[in-house]
Amino acid sequence: MTEQEVRRYLRKMSEQDSQTAFRDFYNMTYDRLFRIAYYYTHHEEWSQEIVLDAFMKLWEHRHQLLNITNIEDYCFILVKNTSLNYIDKEERRPTLSADALQEPTDQAISPEDNLISEELFARYVKALDRLPERCREVFIRIREEKQTYAQVAEELGISTKTVDAQLQKATIRLREMLLQ
Q1: Which pLDDT band, with edges at 50, 70 and 90, does 128 fall under?
Q2: What burial letters (b/e) apply to 24-35, b meaning 16+ CB within 10 Å?
Q3: How confident is the model at residue 108 (pLDDT cuts 50, 70, 90)?
Q4: In the record, what terms sit under GO molecular function (predicted)?
Q5: How far apart are CA 90 and CA 109, in angstroms?
Q6: Cβ contacts of residue 180 below 8 Å, gap of 6+?
Q7: Domains of the chain, start order
Q8: Are 10 and 65 in contact (CB under 8 A)?
Q9: pLDDT of 94 over the 70 cut
Q10: Closest CA to 128 of 174, 164, 167, 168
């Protein structure tokens, strides 16, 4: 996804109310935004709802999107905030007993550590998005979806050695991009 592609879709969405451009933008960014939501919620169903809510907000505010300098960061923050609000809403539901609530520990994460973690995750998502498609697909299936080399090889129609090579290539490139 290049900035130029994104701007083209946003322009069509804003100026022509193009649902086709919105659908293309959706298809291009859904997986990435889903990974961001899943990072915060660790629930697949919640993450799907969150991303759909975020896309609804994007469509409702499509006429202002061209004024946003960095749409990538805007979408990241939109999904992050939507995720945190969703978690807060789910945690307020009266399904937990008082015994289930835990006492805060002395090892609570500081706001600085939390910010560093979020910034690192944002860099990780951007770096992952810049990988070649096959590398990214293999990396996500093995590292995030916890599939075996054999499963990935069978589903993608490649050998396990190719899976291993693609995973190594993805790992090296991610490390290089994250250390810059």
Answers
A1: confident
A2: bbbeebeebbbb
A3: low
A4: DNA binding; sigma factor activity
A5: 21
A6: none
A7: 1-94 (1.10.1740.10), 110-179 (1.10.10.10)
A8: yes
A9: no
A10: 174
d(CA 64, CA 58): 9
Query: Could you tell me the two tokens for 35?
Result: 């990974």
Q: Are 10 and 71 in contact (CB under 8 A)?
A: yes
96 has pLDDT over 60: no
In the numeric block, which tokens belong to residue 77? Answer: 């923050």
Report, as an integer, the average pLDDT of 124-145: 85
Residue 62 to residue 38: CA distance in whole angstroms? 25
HEC string of 66-134 equals: HHCCCHHHHHHHHHHHHHHHHHHHHHHCCCCCHHHCCCCCCCCCCHHHHHHHHHHHHHHHHHHHHCCHH
Q: Cα dihedral sign for 117, 79, 5, 155? A: positive
* Amino acid letter, 10: L
Mean pLDDT in residue range 148-166:
89
